[in-house]
Automatic annotation (TrEMBL):
UniProt keyword Cell division present: no
Span of domain HTH merR-type: 1-71
Signal sequence annotation: none
TM spans (from-to): none
PANTHER family documented for this protein: HTH-TYPE TRANSCRIPTIONAL ACTIVATOR MTA, REDOX-CYCLING DRUG-SENSING TRANSCRIPTIONAL ACTIVATOR SOXR
InterPro entries in the record: DNA-bd_dom_put_sf, MerR-type_HTH_dom, MerR_fam, TipA-like_antibiotic-bd, TipAS_dom
Protein name according to UniProt: MerR family transcriptional regulator
SUPFAM superfamilies assigned to the protein according to its UniProt record, in alphabetical order: Antibiotic binding domain of TipA-like multidrug resistance regulators, Putative DNA-binding domain
Species per Swiss-Prot/TrEMBL record: Mammaliicoccus fleurettii
Taxonomic placement: Bacteria, Bacillati, Bacillota, Bacilli, Bacillales
Keyword terms of this UniProt record: Activator, DNA-binding, Transcription, Transcription regulation
Length: 251
């Protein structure tokens, strides 16, 4: 059952403006736009929004949340367990702060004496350790690890594979410069070549779902965008769109 932006805002308790902002930054795009121009949200959109709000509750910046959710290795079950762990620790931290407040109140009344250490018990100004844990699980290191097989090849073989890879990118940049549609037969054949190359040469299993997630990284991760656009201006966005079309056609 699809929901309008207003219905979703009322259900969750956030503003329509917030949902519009999430759409504008590609953090949460509606599943479709109605003929009248209204945003419509699917069940999958609701699941993603729940993840967004879990991470936001735990002080993750929106940019980091997008990188995590768009990563092809993101696992919802692992994320829920991480959320639970984080929230339980946060609850324990809040309980400790409340206890410190209660103790301080008694101290002011002269009922007890607090040491200087006790006055600051519960305060923690360290960086969010769980942001680092999430980054380890779903951040750039996962994609870096996927290139292990390529980097461990003998020099000549690696050179040949890198040249093959670069030729695919150059060909895609060429059809992009010719303003051919991402759905064109020539472009889709090159995307097929890229998909085959990844599965044949990279130490990672690229299912269609993972391949689509990789295409998301091309525009979500500045490092990928910069490296791909080195072959041609706007290539990262072009490949992102072409990969989405490829995946839709092969599901």
């Amino acid at each position: 059952m699809e929901m309008s932006v207003k219905e979703l805002a009322n259900l969750v308790g956030i503003s329509v403006r917030t949902l519009h902002h999430y759409d504008e930054i590609n953090l949460l795009n509606p599943s479709k736009i109605s003929e009248a121009g209204y945003r419509l949200y699917s069940e999958a959109n609701l699941d993603r929004l729940q993840q967004i709000l879990f991470f936001k509750e735990l002080d993750f910046p929106l940019k980091k949340i997008k990188q995590i959710l768009d990563n092809p290795s993101f696992n919802k079950q692992e994320a829920l367990q991480l959320h639970k762990k984080m929230l339980m620790d946060k609850r324990n931290h809040i309980d400790q702060m409340i206890q410190t407040i209660n103790q301080t109140t008694k101290h002011f009344k002269g009922e007890i004496n607090m040491t200087n250490e006790e006055k600051f018990k519960g305060f923690d100004f360290n960086k969010n350790e769980y942001e680092q844990e999430a980054r380890e699980k779903w951040g750039r290191k996962t994609v870096d690890k996927a290139n292990e097989k390529l980097s461990n090849m003998p020099k000549q073989e690696r050179f040949e594979k890198e040249n093959e890879m670069n030729n695919i990118f150059r060909s895609l940049a060429s059809v992009n410069n010719e303003e051919k549609s991402p759905a064109s037969e020539e472009t889709q054949q090159l995307i097929q070549d890229w998909y085959d190359f990844l599965n044949d040469n990279i130490n990672y299993e690229y299912s269609l779902e993972v391949f689509k997630g990789l295409g998301e990284l091309y525009i979500a991760d500045e490092r990928f965008t910069k490296n791909i656009n080195h072959f041609g201006e706007g290539l990262a966005q072009y490949m992102h769109e072409a990969i989405n079309i490829y995946v839709e056609n092969h599901l």
